[in-house]
Amino acid sequence: MNIIATALLDLVDLIAGSVRSRAFSGGVHPEDCKHYTEHKIIEQCPLPDYVIIPLQQHIGAPSECLVEKGMSVKTGQPLSKSTQFVSVPVHASISGRIAAIEKRPHPGGNQSLSIVIENDGKDEWFDPAPDTPIDTDNIDIDDLKQRIQDAGIAGMGGASFPTHVKLSPPSDKPIDVIILNGVECEPYLTADHRLMLEKTDEILKGLHILMRIVRAKKAIIGIEKNKADAIQLMQKKTKRWKKISVLPLPVKYPQGGEKQLIRAALKRQVPAGGLPMDIGCIVQNVATALAVYEAVAFRKPLIERIVTVTGPGITEPKNFRARIGTPFHHLITASGGYTTSDVKIIHGGPMMGITELSDQVPVIKGTSGILVLDQSVSDLSREQPCISCARCVDVCPMKLMPNRIASFVEHDRIDEAVAYGLSHCIECGSCSYICPAKRHLVHYIKHGKALLVRKRNSS
Question: Which domains does the chain have, with CATH numbers?
Answer without folding.
Answer: 3-31+135-298 (3.40.50.11540), 50-119 (2.40.50.100), 303-378 (3.10.20.600), 391-458 (no CATH)
